[in-house]
Write a structure and sequence with these properties.
The protein is built from 5 helices and 27 strands. β16 (about 285-290) and β17 (about 295-300) form a beta hairpin. The strands form 7 sheets. It has a 6-stranded antiparallel barrel. Strands 9-18-15-11-13 form a 5-stranded mixed sheet, with no helix packed on it. Strands 1-2-25-24 form a 4-stranded antiparallel sheet, with no helix packed on it. It is an alpha+beta fold.
């Protein structure tokens, strides 16, 4: 984790927008929109909290680790998620070996911002979602696969198993016979389908200009009929959202371009606009954990949900006028900071111990190295109180299988930390993991799991802490026994 901060900056944190595992806050006295989501400068979509594994059945997993076959059984099926602004989602897992944390915050992202970024079979996963449960009723799915007696639970397990074969390249087979036939049907029939678009986004997420300019354009993308537009409270009086002709607009359709318009004589400052729509999030959209590592999900079903997007505008009469967006670059293995300067003077800022300058009227893209699964937080500052903080975790790849413990490592620390007492995190949520059929550990930050009767069982084995604890006890008992035997032998001699 790294932090870069300037001096003498007065900031006001109003609201945080979460995008692609990034949190952006504090833009010149108003809430900062999040960093890019679909492409450079995009942001928006559904924010949701992960719930329990609700509909599931057993799936047999076989994979080779260190040249040996490892076989296990996991519960596979549908998770529930609650949309932040209203609505419900159903998701499947696309990151088999990573633990799932209940009540963690997730954000809708494009495939390039998730573990699907380099997966040639991502389109086949979408085909499975379009042609299986819950998008297709259980009876209809059973008829297509030529089976009878399929249930919601076995249909969900069959679908999850087929997805795991493409997302994690594991040999996943449902325990139930009917479900096995459905998995083979889905896996064999799957063909590539084009990636779905965002439910709602604004691009770019940050614009800037001189006082008196019309700031933009900002492009609206949505699968809804239209999105409502408004100025976030706190902006200067008279700030409006307008079209290219300067006419005020309160709603926009997909593809529309809008601008931020300011009254004459407005002092240097910032404003933020907000887009909102009620729609069903498209099948196949990825959902990634925002602040901590947790299983990556893919959308399988959506109620009508409220989705939002925000974009910030900054302006000044003279000097540097900065704008910043941050893009998760999974293909490049890190982040990209896109810094622009619409003013007439250079803008210099510090980032990760290095100084960077953007000339007046210029734009720079600065790569930032971040390790896989690494948490990061940094702040960029500029003139007129400009300050933006970006926070998140880079999670671009599916986890790899852990090696088999060797005899020499008996009693070593388990691969998954033991459970810790439940605590409340910074957003009031609880966390935990699921693995095997025993409640697992996790990152050690929180302790409530998605377990109970509906354990997710798609992460590292939760039995590991128990096994390690038993092993430690046996080592102590064995050592004591050896000591007594040696002492007895000495006495006899």
């Amino acid at each position: 984790m790294f932090s870069v901060r300037g001096r003498g900056v007065v900031r006001r944190l109003a609201a945080a927008a979460l995008v692609s595992g990034l949190v952006a806050v504090g833009v010149t006295g108003v809430a900062g929109p999040a960093a890019a989501e679909e492409g450079p400068g995009d942001n928006g979509g559904a924010s949701a909290v992960l719930g329990r594994l609700k509909i599931s059945a057993k799936v047999r997993i076989a994979e080779k680790v260190d040249g040996e076959e490892r076989v296990s059984e996991k519960n596979g099926g549908l998770f529930e998620m609650k949309v932040e602004n209203g609505g419900n989602l159903q998701t499947y897992c696309i990151d088999f070996r990573t633990n799932a944390y209940e009540e963690k915050e997730y954000k809708e992202v494009g495939w390039s911002r998730s573990s699907l970024h380099d997966n040639p079979d991502a389109g086949k996963i979408l085909w499975i979602l379009e042609n299986s449960y819950p998008n297709i009723p259980v009876a209809a799915l059973g008829e297509k696969a030529g089976v009878k007696g399929l249930t919601r639970e076995t249909a969900a397990a069959a679908t999850q198993a087929a997805i795991w074969r493409y997302s994690d390249k594991v040999d996943a087979t449902p325990v139930d016979g009917n479900a096995r036939k459905v998995t083979e049907y889905l896996f064999g029939k799957a063909t590539k389908v084009r990636e779905p678009k965002s439910s709602l986004s604004l691009s770019p997420a940050s614009v800037a200009g001189r006082t008196g300019d019309r700031l933009g354009p900002i492009r609206v993308s949505t699968n809804a009929a239209e999105a409502t537009l408004s100025v976030v409270p706190g902006a200067p009086a008279g700030t409006e959202v307008v079209d290219k002709d300067g006419k005020p607009v309160t709603a926009a359709r997909d593809g529309a371009e809008v601008f931020v318009d300011l009254p004459e004589g407005t002092e240097d400052g910032a404003a933020e606009i907000r887009a909102e729509a009620t729609t069903k999030v498209p099948l196949g959209r990825a959902f990634v954990s925002v602040r901590e590592k947790s299983q990556t999900m893919i959308l399988a079903g959506s109620s009508s949900s409220t989705v939002t997007a925000e974009a910030a505008a900054t302006w000044a009469e003279k000097g540097a006028v900065p704008a910043v967006t941050v893009v998760k670059n999974c293909a490049g293995g890190g982040l990209e900071v896109i810094a622009s300067n619409k003013g007439d003077e250079d803008w210099t800022f510090e980032l990760k111990g290095a100084s960077h300058t953007v000339a007046g009227g210029g734009t720079r893209t600065i790569p930032v190295e971040v390790a896989e699964d690494e948490a990061y937080k940094f702040t960029l500052t500029g003139p007129n109180g400009f300050e933006r903080t970006f926070e998140g975790v880079l999670d671009c790849d599916t986890a790899t299988p852990e090696p088999k413990p060797s005899a020499t490592t008996l009693g070593a620390a388990p691969s998954v930390p033991a459970p810790v007492p439940s605590v409340t995190d910074g957003k009031g949520g609880k966390g935990g993991t699921t693995g095997g059929d025993v409640t697992g550990g996790g990152t050690g930050t929180t302790g409530t799991t998605t377990g109970g009767g509906d354990l997710a069982a798609t992460g590292g084995s939760g039995a590991t802490p128990v096994i390690a604890g038993v092993a430690a006890v046996l080592v102590v008992v064995g050592g004591g026994a050896m000591f007594l035997l040696r002492r007895k032998k000495t006495t006899d001699d």
